[in-house]
Amino acid sequence: MGIFEGAVVVYLRALYYPEGFNFPLKLMSNQVAITELIREFASLMMLLSVGILAGKNFSQRFAWFIYSFAVWDIVYYVFLYLILGWPENLFTWDILFLLPVTWTGPVIAPVIISVLMILLALTIYCFNIKSNFNARISKKEWLLLISGSFVVFISFIWDYCKFISRNISNTEIHEKTLFERLYELSFQYTPNCFPWLIFIIGTLILVIGIFLIYKRSKQPPPKVVAFKNF
């Protein structure tokens, strides 16, 4: 799937960026933009299907989903580098996702998250094997994983949302509908500054959550005491 995603990007860049990809984005038709959003949603459904089909319980399905997502993301960048020589380095800015709003950041950021996702998936999978596929993620661990993911998500949309909030009241586009204004502004956006502090905080929260699952997976299973009837 990473190669499939990369191939689509190669086609889009050949059409819209023959001189090489750079910000701001080239204006494309509504039809192409909507098609790209649908394609991203379909890709998520395909990855989710892998998790549902491969896993034997909820935690294992979750592990397979995030593992597939992470491998997909890394293979995507490797494929683009081999075909286009892009990204030039790990700090090259990229559009990471379009749902529910545009995510942006240097390439190294999603790669770090992908590595953590692989570690989490392997930890959960090994925990399942050790517990005879009865492993469960505790409420505390879920809280850390969800809150850490949310903080990382905020770091990815931070710069874009700041740009939108500063320019949404632009008098040149004020008479247009909200959707039209957001659409036009998205093609004027150039990344400015990635909020590394927010990203690092979110990443550390995720690491703590993964560590707690790993620590619990290393504990011996509770012994079952058999009582004899006299």
Write a compact overview of the structure shown:
This protein is 65% helix and 4% strand.
Can you give a write-up of this model?
There is one protein chain. The mean pLDDT is 85. The chain has helices at residues 2-16, 30-54, 58-84, 108-130, 139-167, 178-186, 196-217; strands at residues 93-97, 103-106. The radius of gyration is 21 Å and the shape is globular. The chain has 7 helices and 2 strands. The chain is mainly alpha-helical. Helix 1 crosses helix 3 (58-84) and helix 4 runs parallel beside helix 7 (196-217). Helices cover 65% and strands 4% of the residues. The relative contact order is 0.12. Strand 1 (93-97) and strand 2 (103-106) form a beta hairpin.
Give the topology, please.
Blueprint: H1 2-16, H2 30-54, H3 58-84, E1 93-97, E2 103-106, H4 108-130, H5 139-167, H6 178-186, H7 196-217
Antiparallel strand pairs: 1-2
Helix pairs in contact: 1-3, 2-3, 3-4, 4-7, 5-7
